[in-house]
Amino acid sequence: MANTNTDALIPEFWFQAFDALDIGAYNLQNFISRDTEALLAKAGDTVNVPITPDLGDADNWVPGAAITATGVTQATVAVILDKSKKKTIGLTGKELSLPAYDLIEKYGVPMAKTILRTVNDDIYKELLLTNQVVDGTAGVDEDDVVDAKTMLDNAEVGKAGRILVASPDDIGTLLKKDAFQYANYSGDNGRAMNEGDLMRKFGFNIYENNIIEKYTPADLTGAINNGNIIVGSTVLTVDGFADSANPVRNGDVLSIESDTSGYYTVTDTDVDTDGNTVAITITPGLRVQTVNDKVITMKASRSMLAMVPGCAAFAARSYAALPVGVMSAVYNFLGLPIRIVVWVDSSTLNVNVQYDILYGVKMVNDERVCRILTA
């Protein structure tokens, strides 16, 4: 990888950073539906994905009697390419004199990793919005995986294409369990013991993803701040969340004092002028009526994801390569179209290098994904 001093002006040179990248596992973009990408290519930046309705049981009918049709309103979820991400660096003449290997390792590889991490983090946070939750915080094991399977079964989710995605820490925990480790239990011909890989268990193909351990919801405590809130309410007015430095986030999981029905998932928040949380929107709606001053506790956890690809939709599009005169090109890496642009900044005479991508992700059916909370 020789540096001729002009190599750094060529996008292809900088794409080598992806080949040199020790990426770990950033693969969520390839585990959820990408059927919308072709539609977005024709329809702009938004496509409406239809949601399969639940029509209930079949109706009683006497053959020959008058037939009355039930009107159907198609529910949809909009997948929008609304996430525009980039990483740009400026290289001085001193830096450009470095050997090509050093340019890639010191600058290209960290830039490439930021793109992969950011895309996977956004997908992960979207999947956290499901209200199907299994509590494995006491020590995740095979029973929790079976509970997630049962939850998907009860939601009538198809068994084809089921996957389980977990952090390296949680994969390590499962590897220590007899049900996953030994060939006569796991049916993987010793792959778990010999290679440290979990292949397939309880109907799930199992994968590792490094972004999951990067997102641990804050361990925060506040309280209800209004009178009786009826069953079904989705907005909780709260106080006590002096959390401007570590705020409640979408996808966080909470429990409410005296409500033993299970966890709730945060889908939105309101904050005051100091940045402290004053209202929390949850899913599902309250299962148990609550009253003023009942303590709300955010569950500190990360999540394993048991799902099928149809739970969410992802679409990515590169920005167009720029006209002649500016060096730019589009490359595909792990299913992500990434544009690399190189140009000279006339004000500083630095050579600027930018990686960028345009994408969108949206939950389509939260019954098709289950979170297993882990410590």
Q: Which oligomeric state applies? A: single chain
Judged by helices, strands and strand pairing, the structural class is alpha+beta
Order of helices and strands: HHEEEHHEHEHHHHEEEEEEEEEEEEEE
- Structure annotation, total helices: 9
Roughly how many Å is the radius of gyration? 24 Å
Number of extended strands: 19
Give the overall pLDDT as a whole number. Answer: 87
Q: N-to-C terminal Cα separation, in Å?
A: 44 Å
The strand order across the widest sheet is 4-19-14-5-7-6
The proportion of residues in beta strands is: 25-35%
Unreliable spans: none
Q: What's the helix and strand layout?
A:
Elements: H1 11-20, H2 36-43, E1 46-50, E2 76-80, E3 83-91, H3 93-96, H4 100-127, E4 133-135, H5 142-154, E5 163-166, H6 168-175, H7 178-181, H8 183-186, H9 191-195, E6 200-201, E7 204-208, E8 221-224, E9 235-241, E10 253-256, E11 264-271, E12 277-283, E13 295-299, E14 302-307, E15 312-317, E16 327-333, E17 336-344, E18 351-363, E19 369-374
Parallel strand pairs: 4-19, 5-7
Antiparallel strand pairs: 1-2, 3-18, 5-14, 6-7, 8-9, 8-13, 9-12, 10-11, 10-13, 11-12, 14-19, 15-18, 16-17, 17-18
